[in-house]
Design brief:
It is a single chain. The chain has helices at residues 4-30, 34-50, 60-87, 112-117, 127-148, 158-186, 192-215, 224-252, 254-260; strands spanning 107-109, 263-265. By secondary structure, it is mainly α. It has one domain (4-89, 102-265).
């Protein structure tokens, strides 16, 4: 009975590697055709929020003003995707950072070509789940924004405009950075682990900044503050859970170390 476990583990690992490669290949080559669908869906939902708005648009200028935040939200991950593709092309000889932050464990440096020849190199296996999480964070975060934030115009109360601007900025910035992290992982950019750590910290700081902005908004209704607080706390909790789950993997995984740090266990 026990002798069957090694074979079962190898079978599971091989299956996970095949599935990971299939997912990465699908995303790498079929993400581009989804861009028009993504923009169209967000804009369609935005119009669905603009038409029944409590303060309806009275002119095309009002419609454009109310639509602009949603359009920027739709475009931010696309801009991030394009920028990251240009900044992080496939480079088999990508240089490593001169200063190593992660020093846990006993590792031996290898040259870039040797690293790429290693079977563990690349965003496959369990690492494909990390990439999927980074990518899915964009539509999930956008869906939360679309569900929580109404369409408002220039005649809306000051507190509503403060919340709208803060929420729009949060989704734009974080969708941009999460998709950049996704492309960096996909392209095996050596700075990916540091970038992901930076994005996690930035995400938490963004939620705290929004809380401060909302708290200082003039004439804020008493029912709005707790709702925004729950939303921001939920975002912070999700970041902390992600960091808790993935930091040990980013530090100790053989695949992460060979892919992004060009080193193997000594």
């Amino acid at each position: 009975m026990l002798s069957a476990w090694p074979k079962l583990n190898r079978s599971i690992a091989a299956w996970a590697d095949r599935r990971g490669r299939a997912v990465v290949s699908f995303v790498d080559f079929r993400l581009e055709p989804l861009i028009p669908l993504w923009i169209g869906t967000v804009v369609l939902i935005a119009f669905g929020k603009i038409l029944p708005a409590s303060m309806p648009a009275r002119s095309l200028t009002d419609v454009a003003t109310m639509l602009l935040p949603f359009l920027l939200v739709a475009l931010s991950p696309i801009v991030g995707y394009r920028v990251a593709l240009g900044c992080f092309p496939f480079n088999p000889l990508a240089s490593q950072p001169s200063f190593r932050l992660c020093r846990l464990g006993s590792w031996r440096r290898v040259d870039p070509l040797t690293a790429r020849a290693n079977p563990a190199f690349g965003p496959h296996g369990f690492m494909a789940s990390l990439l999927a999480g980074l990518l899915l964070n964009v539509p999930f975060r956008t869906a939360e924004f679309l569900a929580a934030v109404p369409a408002i115009g220039t005649s809306a109360p000051a507190w509503a405009q403060v919340i709208m601007n803060a929420m729009v900025l949060d989704v734009i910035v974080m969708n941009f950075f999460y998709i950049v992290c996704f492309v960096m992982a996909l392209r095996a950019a050596p700075l990916f682990p540091r970038m992901l750590l930076f994005v996690w910290v930035a995400d938490i700081m963004m939620q705290l900044s929004i809380a401060q902005a909302v708290a200082s908004a003039p004439d804020l209704p008493s029912s709005i503050g707790p709702a925004v607080k729950d939303l921001l706390l939920g975002n912070i909790q999700k970041v902390l859970i992600s960091a808790t789950l993935w930091l040990p993997y980013l530090i100790l995984s053989d695949r992460i170390n060979i892919t992004f740090r060009a080193r193997i266990r000594a």
